[in-house]
Amino acid sequence: MHMAHPWWLVLAVAALPALAVWLLRRHHQRYPWPGAAPYSGRGAVAVGATVLAGVLAALSLAPLAVAMARPQEVLSREVEHSRGIDIVIALDVSGSMAALDFKPTNRLGVAKDVISRFIAGRPNDRIGLVEFAGAAVTLCPITLDHHVARSLLERAKLGVLPDGTAIGMGLGTAVNRLRKSKAHSKVIVLVTDGSNNAGELDPMTAAALAAKEGITVHTVLVGRGGEVPIPVQVQDPLTGRIVRQIRRLKVDVNPELLTEIARKTGGTAFRARDARSLEKVFRAIDAMEKTEFSSTKLVRYRERFGPWALAALALLLVAVAAEGILGRSAW
After folding, report:
1. Which residues pair with 301 in a beta bridge?
2. DSSP assignment string, 68-108
3. Integer-rounded Cα radius of gyration of the chain
4. How is 175-197 classified by DSSP, letter by letter?
5. Helix (H) or strand (E) holding 229
6. Is 29 helix (H, G, I), strand (E, B) or coil?
7. Are 96 and 56 in contact (CB under 8 A)?
8. d(CA 306, CA 163)
9. Rounded to whole angstroms, how far apart are CA atoms 61 and 56?
10. For 165-170, what is the mean pLDDT?
11. Are 91 and 194 in contact (CB under 8 A)?
12. Residues 91, 93, 96, 101: is their CA dihedral positive or negative?
């Protein structure tokens, strides 16, 4: 049984207050209309009829509430099954991600904002986070609690891990997070702006491990190679204080490596040269990795409010008859 408008059921709660108000009204109204005094001798019968009328009128609110809620008998249902996706995002937090060619902040700041929106747009998937520079650590295990995942993503920052770009270590750590996953689809999104120059695990070895586990790896190369503006901390030779300066430093990239990682695992290699193109990349990944949703749809149903409405009407008619005939007073 299904209620189309269940909030009408609160009307049933009004039965007791309505009865109390009715009885108080009758108690303080000995003679409802002029000329009623000659009939007041009927005493017990009239009082009993008044009480009965009040009880029946109050009780009529219960079936009336059910009728207004529109009970419906479900005749058939259509059920769709769902299968979620487990996704781990491996994010580069090496020093070059501080480059200022991505506005309004830097490469890392823009990447965090885009990834956070990506997570928010996939509420039915389990998502985990890995960060890497010269080493790699798990920032958040795969979870459905996306509020926690986004909060931990916000804490990702530069300078915590040893400097360098250990793409193999970042990818290998992400593979470990998905190794025991039972999801029908397992995906890693590898976001980096450099070339592998640190770590004990070769990127292609990590890619082979991902392929063996049935994990698809999409790679995203952030920014351009060559010289880019990067803020650095230097010591002022006159004052000895540490000051921040923006210098143009060379950043090596290896798009061929990222393309090969994606190809080996059945993924796609993307390149984002600015904030807008990075947003487009994650929209494309979101469209590629679709989750099958589960839902239950009511297909056919039959209205069942009629008997409840008739019951409410019958109680009201009996109440009117009891008060009007036996109680001999106007409504």
Report:
1. 74
2. HT-EEEEEEEEEE--B-EEEEEEEE-SGGGG-TTSSSS-HH
3. 36
4. HHHHTT---SEEEEEEEESS---
5. strand 226-235
6. coil
7. no
8. 74
9. 9
10. 96
11. no
12. positive
Tokens of 25: 């009204």
Its sign, for the CA torsion 265, 266, 272, 276, is: negative
Task: Read off the tokens for 304.
Answer: 């069942």
Counting residues of the chain whose pLDDT is more than 90, the rounded percentage is 49
Partners of 252 in the β-ladder: none
Strand partners, 216: 187
Determine the longest span between alpha carbons in the chain, in angstroms.
115
Distance (Å, whole) CA 47 – CA 205: 93
* Residue-wise pLDDT tens digits, 250-262: 889 999 999 999 9
Rounded Cα distance, 271 and 251, in Å: 15
Better-scored residue on pLDDT, 61 or 158: 158
Q: Distance (Å, rounded) from C-alpha 181 to C-alpha 322?
A: 71
Q: Alpha-carbon distance 169 to 196, whole Å?
A: 9
- Which pLDDT band, with edges at 50, 70 and 90, does 17 fall under? confident
Cα–Cα distance, 219 to 212 (Å, whole number): 18
Domain boundaries, given as residue ranges, for the chain = 2-77+301-326, 85-288
Looking at residue 77, its amino acid is R
Superfamily of 85-288 according to CATH: von Willebrand factor, type A domain (3.40.50.410)
Per-residue tokens: 137? 């650590």
Residue 158's nearest CA partner among 184, 126, 193, 186 is: 193
Task: Look at residue 31 in the predicted model and tell me its pLDDT.
Answer: 45
Q: Which helix (H) or strand (E) holds 151?
A: helix 146-155
Single-letter amino acid code for the residue at 31: Y
Q: What is the pLDDT of residues 137-149, one digit of tens each?
A: 999 999 999 999 9
* Model confidence pLDDT, tens digit, residues 288-319: 887 665 555 555 667 888 888 888 888 878 87
Q: For 188-199, how does the pLDDT look when each residue is reduced to its tens digit (9 = 90+)?
A: 999 999 899 999
Asked whether 141 and 74 are in contact (CB, 8 A), the reply is no
